Amino acid sequence: MESGKRDMPVYAPIDPSESMDAIGNRIQQHAQTRGSHPALIDEQGALDWRSLVDQVNRIANRLREAGLRPGESVAALSGNSRDDVALYLGTLVAGGCMVPLSGMASTEALALMVTDCQARFLFISGQQRELFGRLRAQLTKVPGERIISLAGPLDGAGYSLVDWLAQTTATARPEPVTLNDPFNIIYSSGTTGTPKGILHDYRFRQRQMVRMSRYGLDGETINLVSTPLYSNTTLVSVLPTLYHGGTLVLMAKFDAHRFLQLAETHRVTHAMLVPVQYQRILAQPDFDGFDLSSFKLKLCTSAPLRSAVIADAMARWPGNLREVYGLTEGGISTSLDCAAHPDKWDSVGVPTQGAEVRVIGEDDRELPRGATGEIVGRAISMMRGYVNRPELTREMLWTSPEGEVYYRSGDMGRIDEDGFIYILDRRKDMIISGGFNIYPVDLEKVLLSHPAVADATIIGIPSEHWGETPLGLVVLQPDRDETEHGILKWANTQLGKSQRLAAIEFRATLPRSAIGKVLKRELRAPYWPGT
């Protein structure tokens, strides 16, 4: 691998006439044409485009001075701050490949990620100082002088960012890049072995940024960012906002009431949220007292949004709501315009421009519309592959009879007669009980319709008679005194015979990832020892 270039296949359709317009060049223009326009707003105040780009160029120049070559990786224990955004852009301006790392991962997994991506530098966000303390001893591949703290001196780091940049100029020198060059690596949340590093090139990101601009993400956008920068969910809206010279309002940590305050204060126009955030925001007792009239569009991704929540948001929250379904790997891309299709709120919409979606059976043959199987897709944005994991990349591929490469989603679903896609569940979460396929989402919808249920999920547990059987895990609304048996009896009257729950267990909370996904593997573990 020469100078960090990763020779991996390209699965996305190629357009020979496609021109390159790198984000590193675009932001230099913003400094000239939108210099006094706010680029970032956080708890420290506003930072205009001229000041942000000066910081970005200083980081880029210092990375090159310290030995970063085009295509090489820069890793960061990432947070949501102006310095984190500047580092991301600075790495790209220097021609590097950005690798934002999750603070939710174990130290063992993080050490493997840093090694796997061959990180030349590691930056530590102020939000991750404590985690770095536990991680430091496992970082054997990155010299101390290449570990930089974004928030002041830190034991185990060679420099603070201020000291590291002390003698560096802000001269603009964006590194030339091509559509095939690495842009970023996003790591999956694996718990055993090395997590999968998803490599995106400039073609992937540029096409995605252009597509998202069709939803109104442009230079006038004020985008409230409340999910972490290491998540592709966040980058889907953050990168096009920066690309077009808009404004990001950064939340270091999500809080529903604070979200509403910031939205009102800064006249926010756009936000990318996950389902649990919608639920928490809409449940705020004083929600209707906030002026949210500036909103043009809310986006939702990471999991299907329940139709009841869509209905509540459409009724009470100004602006349209658009649900986006896809994979971090790309390939699958659908969108639901909630205002245009109120009769399709249980779906995740139709394929976006340039995308194709099919459903296949256990035998890998395409199924007709209405049949349930695994969703596969191809689109204009598709990853280069999993870093250093060609066998896992191959396992993800499905080739159509026409010879085109599609990505397997791992999601079970169907396509209706109008071409709208419905997600039932992750294939690995499907429960096979007595030979019947049970999709947890169907059971969860029933539980969540009970007025005493605040949150719920379904997992499969061992059954001597059926092989496995569904268990409902329920979080009650405050001050409700229903019993587990009472909710079980009620739910089973709503369900088909093959779907009936074996039991209900009350929980104080359900464990979720940073982007709101229920951690079902963690919930299943006590019931399946040794697996």
Could you explain the architecture of this structure?
The chain is α/β, with parallel strands linked by helices and 531 residues long. It folds into three domains: 2-12 and 20-34 and 45-201, Rossmann fold; 254-426, Rossmann fold (3-Layer(aba) Sandwich); 430-527, ANL, C-terminal domain (GMP Synthetase, Chain A, domain 3, 2-Layer Sandwich). The chain contains 15 helices and 27 strands. Strands 2-1-11-10-12-13-14-15-16 form a nine-stranded mixed sheet, with helices on both faces. A hairpin with a 5-residue loop joins strand 20 and strand 21. Helix 10 crosses helix 11. The longest helix has 17 residues, at 49-65.
Q: Strands, helices and their partners?
A:
Elements: H1 23-33, E1 38-42, E2 45-48, H2 49-65, E3 73-77, H3 82-93, E4 97-101, H4 107-116, E5 119-124, H5 129-135, E6 147-149, E7 159-160, H6 161-164, E8 182-187, E9 197-201, H7 202-213, E10 222-225, H8 232-243, E11 247-250, H9 256-265, E12 270-273, H10 275-282, E13 297-300, H11 307-316, E14 320-326, E15 333-337, E16 350-351, E17 356-360, E18 373-378, E19 385-386, H12 390-396, E20 397-399, E21 405-415, E22 421-426, E23 431-433, E24 436-438, H13 440-448, E25 453-463, E26 467-476, H14 484-494, E27 503-506, H15 520-524
Parallel strand pairs: 1-11, 3-4, 3-5, 5-6, 6-7, 10-11, 10-12, 12-13, 13-14, 26-27
Antiparallel strand pairs: 1-2, 8-9, 9-19, 14-15, 15-16, 17-18, 18-21, 20-21, 21-22, 23-24, 25-26
Helix pairs in contact: 1-2, 2-3, 4-5, 7-8, 10-11
